[in-house]
Amino acid sequence: MKLLEKAIAEKGRVFEGDVLNVGSFINHQIDSVLLAKMADEICAHFGDKGVNKVLTVEASGIALAILVAERLGCMMVFAKKSRALNDAGEMYAAECRSFTRPGVNTVIVPKEYLGSDDNVLIVDDFLAVGNAASALRSIVEKAGAHLCGMAVAVEKGYQGGGDKIRKEGVDLLSLAVIDSMENGKITFRGQL
Ligand code: 5GP
Predict the structure, then answer these.
(1) Cα 22–Cα 168–Cα 158 angle in degrees, nearest 5
(2) SS (H, E, C) 103-155
(3) pLDDT for 45-65, tens place per residue?
(4) 17-51 per-residue burial string, b: 16 or more CB within 10 A, e: under 16
(5) What is the rounded distance in angstroms from the CA atom of residue 124 to the CA atom of residue 154?
(6) Which of 4, 57, 101, 165 is the most exposed place for a label (fewest CB within 10 A)?
(7) How many whole angstroms separate alpha carbon 149 and alpha carbon 168?
(8) What gap in Å lies between CA 109 and CA 30, rounded to an integer?
(9) Does the C-beta of 13 come closer than 6 Å to ligand 1?
(10) Which residues contact 106 (CB under 8 A, 6 or more apart)?
(11) Per-residue pLDDT tens for 3-40?
């Protein structure tokens, strides 16, 4: 998506450890107009696939996921990274090694929010090596739900998670695919 690539090129910052900071427009301060256009693009791809639930993981996937769910007219559910005192009932759980923070989280979704009748679209802000995607896919599987596909704002293609998911036959839509961030220079897939 050219508009997103342009925003990344202009406002994204490459940090040590292969991390792209998009805090000024996607995941801390949020450009709602850009995110709405991103959600439109995702819905143009998945709008006729019968999605009845959008699944993401807290926190930075939530903004995009909720805009997608609003357009598809369905619920959005997010996996929490820890159980709060007000979280009741049985949970689906999956381990997830974080790319941007040290350690492993157990991400949880209440069983009452996901089940075998659900046709799920996973939405997230980033796809790197694919740990978050694997954890969410495992939760969909445990729920006996059908995975309709995955949409991410930014795929760091050179980290391999996206290609692995495509090889497994999942319909993966990445709005921007970065092929390299060497020496702080961002190159997008398909860019000469
Ligand atoms: P993965 O699990 O695919 O390795 O990484 C995806 C998750 O890690 C996303 O949910 C996202 O929050 C975070 N992440 C991975 N790479 C980046 C990055 O370069 N920048 C930011 N802001 N988040 C990232």
Answers:
(1) 35
(2) CEEEEEEEHHHCCCCCEEEEEEEEECCCHHHHHHHHHHHHCCCEEEEEEEEEE
(3) 999 999 999 999 999 999 999
(4) eeebebeebbbeebbeebbebbbebbbeebeeeeb
(5) 9
(6) 101
(7) 11
(8) 25
(9) no
(10) 81, 82, 93, 94, 95, 96
(11) 999 999 999 999 998 999 999 999 999 999 999 999 99
> Identity (one letter) of the amino acid at 20?
L
Task: Establish whether residue 62 lines the binding site of ligand 1, counting it when its CB lies within 6 angstroms of any ligand atom.
Answer: no
Does the beta carbon of 39 sit less than 6 angstroms from any atom of ligand 1? no
Which pair of structure tokens corresponds to residue 124? 């997230």
Which residue owns the Cα nearest ligand 1 atom 5? Answer: 128
Is the whole model's pTM more than 0.85, yes or no?
yes
Note the residue count of the chain.
192
Cα torsion through 34, 35, 41, 44, rounded to 10: -130
Give the residue whose CA is nearest to atom 10 of ligand 1: 126
